[in-house]
């Protein structure tokens, strides 16, 4: 499922094998007719020969990455924005980059420039003449990945790896790469701080090659964008590249069903009660929906987006703050919508009973150990 051979590709795009081999050679990729090309490379070749590709392989890859979808959804898929997390070594500029993108793309166009901290925000991007969105999760990348791995869910579509151009690949850079690889999340690298005199993007690229990330311009399939969070240079290009990567990933969801998704953050607000920021991963969340999250339940009373707007509905990949839950759910928990509040309450009650029982059993087990140790 990971690609097709040079010969198969040549047949697919109705070109002689030699033309494809020659093209790849000039791109710096030495191949023969039996060598397997990955999907992005095959796509790149096909597009260079002006052929639109829709390989079966690409489709099955897409199904794998849309884990929250079931068979019925597959007939009703619509493109959804990529959900992006930022990772990288400390002080390489993760926070600065997020802030710079938010300031440049969100605050300026908003009334009063207010953005609320809800653990996620979206930016609008012009892409191929269309208005598209990119959703950024504000949680530190490694936390998002750890939570994801622990629960086996995937909340991120793309990881932005921030590497400071004056410092290069460091231990947490390597850690970030291996987290992303383990979770099968594609990496787009932002080579940051290129405004600095001591910056060298080429050195960073060379170091990244040693960890399996080969830049496109050197014949690989890894997107690397030199940026500066301070001067704002190339931030637009970075967003553009995230949308390109999203196209490769073929990110879809079915907005015409009850919502499913994951809790990104939750807390108890003195005035508003339990507040949860939810990432919608499939379906559409609406006011009045009856929700269960872990053993917490409720009816969605209000939804607020990252721009402080009250919204009636939230579609796939968007994050909203939700009011109306009976308690504070756990970050990382998945939520589900039920047909009635009664049903939601009974599912939540059952889970609460299960949890109580397992807690009692655990505490009994530990007491037994203590007694044994004592005697
Ligand atoms: P984080 O630990 O990865 O979140 O890094 P920060 O965003 O806190 O940035 C660490 C330091 O690097 C801060 O002093 C920033 O002002 C500085 N910094 C971040 N991005 C840039 C950049 O593009 N250029 C320069 N010159 N400094 C930067
Ligand atoms: Mg930071």
TrEMBL record:
<feature type="binding site">
    <location>
        <begin position="88"/>
        <end position="95"/>
    </location>
    <ligand>
        <name>GTP</name>
    </ligand>
</feature>
<feature type="binding site">
    <location>
        <begin position="192"/>
        <end position="195"/>
    </location>
    <ligand>
        <name>GTP</name>
    </ligand>
</feature>
<comment type="function">
    <text>One of the essential components for the initiation of protein synthesis. Protects formylmethionyl-tRNA from spontaneous hydrolysis and promotes its binding to the 30S ribosomal subunits. Also involved in the hydrolysis of GTP during the formation of the 70S ribosomal complex.</text>
</comment>
<feature type="binding site">
    <location>
        <begin position="138"/>
        <end position="142"/>
    </location>
    <ligand>
        <name>GTP</name>
    </ligand>
</feature>
<protein>
    <recommendedName>
        <fullName>Translation initiation factor IF-2</fullName>
    </recommendedName>
</protein>
<comment type="similarity">
    <text>Belongs to the TRAFAC class translation factor GTPase superfamily. Classic translation factor GTPase family. IF-2 subfamily.</text>
</comment>
<feature type="domain" description="Tr-type G">
    <location>
        <begin position="79"/>
        <end position="251"/>
    </location>
</feature>
């Amino acid at each position: 499922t990971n690609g097709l051979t040079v010969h198969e590709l040549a047949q697919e795009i109705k070109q002689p094998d030699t033309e494809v081999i020659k093209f790849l050679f000039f791109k710096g990729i030495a191949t023969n007719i039996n060598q397997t090309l990955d999907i992005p490379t095959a796509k790149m070749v096909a597009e260079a020969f002006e052929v639109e590709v829709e390989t079966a392989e690409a489709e099955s890859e897409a199904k794998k990455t849309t884990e929250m979808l079931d068979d019925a959804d597959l007939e009703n898929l619509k493109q959804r924005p990529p959900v992006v997390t930022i990772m990288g070594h400390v002080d390489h500029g993760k926070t600065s980059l997020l802030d710079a993108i938010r300031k440049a793309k969100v605050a300026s166009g908003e009334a009063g420039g207010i953005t609320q901290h809800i653990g996620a925000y979206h930016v609008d991007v012009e892409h191929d003449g269309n208005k598209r969105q990119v959703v950024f999760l504000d949680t530190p990348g490694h936390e998002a990945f750890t939570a994801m791995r622990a629960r086996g869910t995937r909340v991120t579509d793309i990881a932005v790896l921030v590497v400071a151009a004056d410092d290069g690949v460091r231990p947490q850079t390597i850690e970030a790469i291996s987290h992303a690889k383990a979770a099968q999340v594609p990496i787009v690298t932002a080579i940051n701080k290129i405004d600095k005199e001591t910056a060298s993007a080429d050195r960073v690229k060379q170091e990244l090659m040693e960890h399996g990330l080969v830049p496109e311009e050197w014949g690989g399939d890894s997107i690397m964008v030199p940026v500066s969070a301070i001067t704002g240079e190339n931030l637009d290009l970075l967003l553009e590249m995230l949308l390109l990567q999203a196209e490769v990933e073929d990110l879809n969801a079915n907005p015409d069903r009850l919502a499913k998704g994951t809790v990104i953050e939750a807390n108890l607000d003195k005035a508003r009660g339990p507040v949860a920021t939810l990432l919608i991963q499939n379906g559409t969340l609406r006011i009045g929906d009856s929700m269960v999250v872990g053993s917490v339940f409720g009816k969605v009373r209000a939804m607020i987006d990252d721009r402080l707007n009250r919204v009636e509905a939230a579609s796939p990949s968007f994050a909203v703050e939700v009011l109306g839950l009976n308690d504070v759910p756990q970050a990382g928990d998945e939520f589900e919508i039920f047909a009635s509040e009664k049903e939601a309450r009974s599912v939540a009650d059952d889970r609460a009973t299960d949890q109580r029982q397992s807690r009692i059993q655990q505490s009994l087990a530990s007491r037994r150990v203590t007694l044994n140790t004592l005697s």
